[in-house]
Structures are given as structure tokens and as C-alpha cells.
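Hi R.,

As promised, here are both runs. First protein below:
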Amino acid sequence: MSLGSLLNVSKLGIFASQGALQTISHNISNANTTGYTRQTVELESMRGTQADYGGNGVRIADVRRQIDELVDRRLQLGTGELGRLETRDKYTKLIEDVFNDMDGNGLSQGLEGFFDAADTLADNPGNAVARYQLIAKAESVAQDFNKMSEALSESALPLDKEISVVLDDINTRLKAIQEINNTIVRTEASSPALDLKDQRNKMLLELGQIIDIRTIPMENGEVQVMSSRGQELLADATYSAKFGRLTNVKTDTGFSAIGIGGREIGQDKIKGGKLGGLLELRDEVVHGDTGVLSKLESLADELRWQFNRANTVSVGNSMVSDMTGLMYLGSDLDTALSGVVTDNKAATYQGAPVDLSRVTSGRLVFATGTESALTPSAAVDITTTMTLRQVQQAIDALDGVQAEITSDNKLKISAENAGSKLGVVMDESGILAALGVGALISGKGAQDMAVSAELLSNPDLVGQGRLIVKASDAQGLPTAVVHDDANSQGALLMGNLRSTKFMLFGNSASLTGHYATMVGELGSLINQDTESLTAQQAAQTFLSNSRESLSGVSLEEELTDLIRFQRAFQASSKMVSVADDLMQTLIQMV
């Protein structure tokens, strides 16, 4: 080896050691930088020629990020599930507060209070205080439904608004990933973009916690960001998707759909991350066929129907001369009852009474006259093929009874003769309960449930008793009835609803039983989410620790390498000094 070659080899050794020391210094300075990946230097020996017996020294072949791609990919995939579960955990606990009966003022206690009041009235039908108490308890139950519906609706509205905020955040992050992708591609053409890749990896992890994504690394250094099922390109070096709300396209639960560039993207493609969690909460936990708000509405519908069926066939302490329905008839007055659309979920609801679909074919009989001398009317055979107008006309055709549709679109039934009183003997069809004639509860759902204003102002009208049938004909129709203000059959009807079972949500149970089941299912869902979140957090912690053990900076290891390469640098410098001494010796010999 010539002295020139010796000097060159020593110089390359100095450069290689200097580059290694610079990388080590970079690692040490970033030991506390979040998302930083340890960089390592790969040295490569340089092959010598025939004249260079010992080779041509060393060079830096590459500087790499020390990573395990499998661990990084699993960590990235897990962030989407973690974000989804954290979002569900946060909001389901807020929903749970709506059903919290621990303070003794919840719906369950309200229902029990109403049934207790009905039992008290049945025991003493002449007690005016008991009638006031029944109305007060009914109003309390209605207000509980109002508050719960309002709370759940308000929890859904912020959820939908939060979805819009999240979409804007996703758009900003995707644009930033596109820009850093583009910078990495340009930088990689001349030198490794190691720190930029660390920044991008951090950005991808943060995005993955918001929306479930998949990433595909490309040879030029860019990363393609895809939707969770790989069906939508979200970002690369030249493109970034833009999410938005499609005001002209609605989801099954009535909210504006999500789109990319004006094109709808199905919610089945968004399964993880904060966005996926928000969509699940909005469309499954709160709304949807099995959502708590939908179940609350179904419970309210059942309660309103059962309470009204009991009260419409009952009479108060004093009989009345007329009864006006609580429900608006809608515009389908000439459509068969079985064909009338009653969509109580529509915000601009203008249809017929929501309980009209429960009406069946059956007989309807009134009694008119003085309270001491009542005469049963002929029976009206109500069928589901009749229209609302035909129902009104059929009732109006009865002797002693008058029926009309009021100017504000309600059914009013009156005693035809001056001074006469009116009462219901039987209603097998349920038409009076559907139209709210003599009913206890008004409204189309939980959000507007209310006690009849007439009963609130005059509790004596509460249906505490039934008209007593003294005689019937061969067809079972009453031929003689009397009014006894000591009769408590009406109050007993309402009190018996405590234990009567109804089919809801695929199960048969009492009203309080259905409510308890609904609350229990919500609690079970929350516990399941909490357990899943704990398990996912443990899994992410394990993966993070695994990544840190490989890709994190260990100061002890860096200091060891620092000493090693420092000594190598010193040795190469010594070789330069030796070569210089040899050169001086040769010059002196000449």
C-alpha cells in the first residue's frame, strides 16, 4: 500500500467515524422527542485494487431508522380501535346519566308513584285529594319522558355537530400528510428523509385515532393512505381527499350523509377511530331501531296508548256533556284507517294520530241522559276499512249523540240533547284512545307527552269508574247502564297496568320491566365498552413499549457507541499522523 493510499484510508475512516458520531449526537439530542425513531449508521468496507493489499478503507453505506414494520403496523391499526372505544366510553357515560334513577327521581320511581296513586284512588274513589294526586303523578311521568327525550336529542345533536368538526380536522390532517409525502419524495431523490418520515409516522398515528386507516408504503418513499377497508384513497404525494356533509342525502336516522368530493361514502367504510365511534353512538346507541331514544319513544307510545285506553272507557266523579279529542286528525280524513300513514318520527309531522295503527275492528257504545237515567246508544261497528270521516259520521248518526270535526281538526263528541250527559260504555276498537277522546295523555311521542289540560284544570274528570251495565241483549250489547260515583273500576284499570305485560323489543314485560331492561342493556353496553377499552389500552401500551425497546433512544447504548466511534476517530487520526511521519522520513532520506 502506498503512503497516499494509507492517507486516503485514514481520511475515509475519519469521515465514517465523524458521520457515525453525528448520528449518535442526533439520537441523543432527540432522546425525549415524541415519535422520534433511533437512527443507525451502516458502514461498508471499500474493496481495494490489486495494488491495495489491505483494501481501500470504509464508507457510510446508509443511515436507517431502526424500526420493526410489523410492530409499527400493529400499533397503527390499534389506534383506530382505541380512538373508537375512547369516544364511546366518553359519550355513553353521558347517556347513562339520562337514565340515572339513583337519586329516587327517575322514570321508574315516577311510574311506581302513578300506579300507587291509582291504587289509592281505587280504594277511595270519592277522595278528591286522591284524584289530584293521580293527575300530579301522571304529569310527573310525562315530564320525565320530556326531559329524557330532550336530553337524548341534545346529546345526539352535539354528536352530529362533533362529526362535522371531526371531518374538518381529517381534511386538514390529510392535506398535511399529502404535503409531507411530497416533501419526502423530493428529499429521498438525493438523501434519506429520516426525520420527515418520523414526523409523517406521528401524523398517521394521530389521524388513525380519528379515522380508521390503512397505509401502503411505496418505493419512492411516499405512503398511500387508504380507508380502513382499502376501498378509498385518502392521501398520497399528489392527492388528499376532502370529506364533507351531503345535505341532499340522508342516513337512515335522518342526518346528512358523509361524502368525499361530493360523492357519498357509505358508513360501512368508516368503522374505527373517533369518527367511527361518533357514528355508532349517533346511529346505533342513541338513534336507530335499537337505540335508547327509539326504545324510549316505543315505551312512551305504549304508555300513552294503555293509559288512554283505560281512561277513555271510564267516567269521572261527574259526567260531562261533551268530549274533544286531544289528537289532531291530520289530512287523511278520507283514507281507510289501515292505510293512513302515521310517522311520529318526522320532524314536520302532519299525519293522523300516531296510535291510529293500533285500532282494530270492534263495537263502540255510548250512554246519554241524566246521571240518574242513562240510555245506551246503538253500537257503532268500527272497522279498519272506515275512514276518519266515516267514523265521525257513524257516531253522529247515533240517537242522542253528536260528532263533529272541529275547526282545529279534532273529533268532538257531545250529548245531542240539552242538559244531557255523555259517557262511554265500551270501546272494543280503541278508536277513542287513538283520537284522544276522553284521554289522559296527549302528544305524539316522548318529547311532547303531556297530561290533558282539561284534566289538569279539573281532576274531577279523571276516569276513576266505569258505567255499570245492568242488562244486556243476546248480542252482549248493554240495554241498561247506571253511573255510580263510588265505582272504582277505571282506577283499577290504570292500577293494573303496573303488572300487565306488553310485547316490546321482542319481549313480554310490564312497563317498568321494559324500562328496567332498557336501562340494564345500556349498563351492560357501557361495561362491555369499558372492558374493551381497558384491554385495548393494555395492548397499545404493550406495542408502544415494544416499539420503544427497539426504536427508542437508549442513552446508555448511545454513550457506548459514542466512546467506540470516538476511539475509531482517534485511531484514524493517528493513522494520518503515522503516514505523515513516514512521509517526512522519506523526504529527509532524499
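And here is the second one, sequence first, then its C-alpha cells:
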Amino acid sequence: MTLHPVLVEVTQRIAERSHASRTAYLAKIDAARGKGAKRHHLSCGNLAHGFAASCESDKDALRNGHAANIAIITAYNDMLSAHQPYEGYPERIRSTARRLGATAQVAGGVPAMCDGVTQGRPGMELSLFSRDLIAMATAVSLSHDMYEGALYLGICDKIVPGMLIGALSFGHLASAFVPSGPMPSGIPNEEKSKVRQAFAAGKATRAELLEAEARSYHGAGTCTFYGTANSNQMLMEIMGVHLPGSSFEPPDTPLRNALTDATVERVLATDCNGEQYIPLGRIIDERAIVNGVVGLHATGGSTNHLLHLVAIARAAGIDLRWDDFDALSSVVPLLARVYPNGYADVNHFHDAGGMAFLIDQLLDAGLLHNDVHTIMGYGMDTYRNVPALGDDGVLAWHPVSKESGNRGVLRSTAEPFRQDGGLRMLKGNVGRSVIKVSSVPDDRMVIEAPAIVFDEQDDVKAAFDRGELNRDFIAVVRFQGPRARGMPELHKLTPTLSLLQDRGHRVALVTDGRMSGASGRVPAAIHVTPEAEAGGPIARIRTGDLIRLDANTGALEVLVDADEWNSRVPDNVDLGVHHTGMGRELFAMFRQSSVAADLGAGVF
């Protein structure tokens, strides 16, 4: 299939502007490969420390053998439902490696916080920066130079991007990500949303809300809505660092266990000692990054990846920009409807054909690069296949059906839910921002209304409770950016603004904070850059200013006289209360060093 010309153009543009940095990156990982296992170049004291706690067979292999030693980087904890299944993975991986004549060691752990727990709390102001901390922890874990390959056990929001950024610093290693799968479906997402809105309106009790939430988040595995965690899983598969069909297989099934075993086998088959050597830094190239952006658009994925994919690309020497997302969005159709963009969850998506159907459709339409390296080898065709266990218990892959198993959840490119992707860029005198439109109603794509300015998200709910928001308005929530307070997600705004929209009011949100993968039906211009704390134009907006948010044309404008606008002095806010307590004082250097949102909002 001939590639779509826009896909070709965007990829070439990225490659050209990235030539120098990508060349330097590849030279770095080629030099890091060296000759054979690095542990054999360690001093005797170094090496003895490295295998001191191993079992006798592993000691013998590590001191005398030449088989690969796999690093396990784990984000296990049993507070995160998605990561709880990882508890037994290291022993399984070690056993599988031994059976294949190799060894594996837990090289280190990385912190793993849950945005669902910290939402609206002070801890959320550490969340985005935890990505870069995880990258650093990954690098520390691998710095012992004992490994020829690596397996990364991570699922959720900042954890996978952080691990991948760290892993790319060791891009000479054969590497793969190992998912654990989603929890079983709970109550229907629309039912949960209704209870949340009822609680926001004072028509449901806290006990009723907690019961609805507990029936939704009720077991081990990833939360089943299509937020950042599940967008991460989609990305790892479509960029070739998951096994085909492994992203959304539930935890603790025989098939899940077989996929984990097979991932160990693939890393060993592609390590630097073998003829099939495929280092991670060669898998994550310009084409793989573009494939990731395409997958994000085709599934209506998380807006957080307007930050994370940019930062991941930078770690591989690739200059990805929001303009590239915007250009691809115009030609990539929306093929999936998963909550909050529809009624279904990721289990329904998986049952309807899942990633194999999606990739098959995009490849046939010329909307994915097939000439890429993956952990399976060369090309994406193996990712058209669905894994299954035969009667003999052997893992095999079979071609996916050309027909969706549920057209209400997953469709072909011949009949998409939308002709374009779910993410767009906005520009104007407020700066640059992004908006997720995959679930915004057609009659809400353009909102022109007076601004009401807030510097704390809690003040929005307080104004609602006072009865001050029963009208058309655009909530401008400022001083939420990375330099101000770590760019927290602002999910607490969603029930209130959704309720007002349902009452018939024309409402929208403009913020230099985040809304993540749960951005829904209310138009939200997020990640505004430059941010208010950096003196960005968003800090000039005053309550009563008329704002026009036009997702059709990509415009975000404050409709005031140009001379007046340019003469305004940006507001300042004392953020000291947000810089201490709950560990926030430890992250001062992150806030001070963070780059802008359109560069990834990170410190590297």
C-alpha cells in the first residue's frame, strides 16, 4: 500500500530537522554496544558484587558464561491496580530466562504514583515531574553495566513515558515493555459519569459516589477507561516494543503468562550477542514516532502524549512538534470510540479486534509505516495478528478478522467515526494550546463567551456552589503550568463543567494545566504555552474579556483591542503554598528547569 502523502511529508520533515541530533544519538548507542557482554569487562570485585545474591546456577552463568543477562526494571507496587499483577513477574522472568539458558535480575525499581488517587490533591503537583524522576531512576538501575537486554514492567500515566525516556539512554540494549492488562469491566462508564455529575449538583451523597467509583475500579489491572495508561499500552504496541496483541490481554490468564514468557524470549533473541540484534534506539526512530502519533489520533488517545511523545522523541534525538500532530490529525480517521469518547471500555475494544484490527486497517490505508524495526523483527505485518494458545498450550498468532467485532466501538477506515483525528492545535493571541475534540459535540466546536478567571481549580467549584456559573462563560484557569506548580491534571473541573453544558450553557476551559486522557465533551484548550508563570499572554486575561475558541479553524483569541491587549501587564500570583508540603519542596529544581509544554514540559 502506498503511504499517504501527508504521512510521508511529516516524517521527512521530522527526519530533516532531526538529522544532527539523531545522528549523534545513534553514534552514542553504537559506541555503547561495544564488544559483547559488558559485565566481562568489570573488575572481579565489581562482578562479584553483581552476582553475590544470585542462586548458584545464575552465579555460574554470570561469572563464566556468555549468555545474556536481562535487567528487570519494575514499577511494582500493590496500591496501583495496574501494577499489582507485577508482583510475581520477576520470578517468572527469571525462570523463563534460565530455561532459555540466560539470566535475569531485578536491576531496580521506579516510583509509580496514581493520578486517580492524587487527583485534585497536593500530590498531583508531583505527577508530571515523576516522569523525569522515573527516567533518572531507570538510568540509575541500568548503570551497573551488567546487562545485555532489559524488560520494563510499567503501565500507567507517567511511568511508561519515564521508563522509555530512561531506556533510550541505554538504547543499545535489546528491550521490551511487558504489560499486565486491564481489570475486568465494572459498571458502565456512563452510569459512573451520571453519579459524578449528580454529586457535583448536590443530588447524590458521598456514599453513593464512593459506591459507584468502587464498582468501577474494583480489581487488579489497568483502569478500563481510555486514559493515559491505556494510551501508553496502545503506543507501546503500535511503536513495536510490546508483543503483538499483548497490550489488553487481562492479568493472570494462561495467555497473559505465555505472552510474558515470549517477551523474554524475544529480548534474548535480539540481544547484542545475537545475529538478530535489534536495539531499542533503532526501534524508536522517526517512523515509529509518527506511527505513535497516528495511533493516538485513530483511537482518540490521551492529550498527555502531546507532552510525553515529544519528550520521548527528544530522548531518541528526534524533534517532534505539535505542528506534526496537527498535520497528521487532518488525515487520520478516528476508528475507536472508547470512554470518555464513547460508551465502551478497553475490554470491549480488545474484544472487537483491538490493536490487531486497528493496525491492519491503518496499514492497508497507507497510514502507518511498515518499514520499521520492532521486537518481532522488521515490519509491522506481524502486528496484524492476534495471539492465542493452541490445544497444546503453545502460543501462536493468527490473522485478525477484516470485520470489526463491534462497530459501535471499532470501525474500519471505510466507515470511521470521524474523518479526522481527535487532537488539534490552537493558536492565537493567548499562545499555543491543544484540544481533544473526539467527543466534543458538533455544536460546541466553537464557543464565544466572556472569560471568568481563576487561579485555583477549587475556586471553580466554589463559584458553582454559590450559583455564579449558571450562564455562558469560558473558565480560564491559570498558573497551573510546569513552572508554576508542576502542571497538574484538572479532572475536578470535568463534572462541574459537564453539568453546566448539559443545562444548555455554552462553556469551555482555557488552561496552562492538563486534562489528560479523560478530556471529554466540554471544549478544553489545554497546555497553553507560554504559561502564566513565564509571563505568557494567558496571564493578561481579565474576567469579562470575550474569548473565541474555534476548534474548527484552530483559533484561540481574546477579543479585545490589540493596543489594550499588548499594554496589559501579566498578573502575578504568590504560589508559595503550592511549593511546600507533600514533598513539593524537593521538586523546586524541576519547576525551575522545566521547558515549555510544547517541548515536552520536562527537565532534559
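A quick note on the second one: Residues 127-142 form the longest helix (16 residues). Let me know what you think.

Best,
J.
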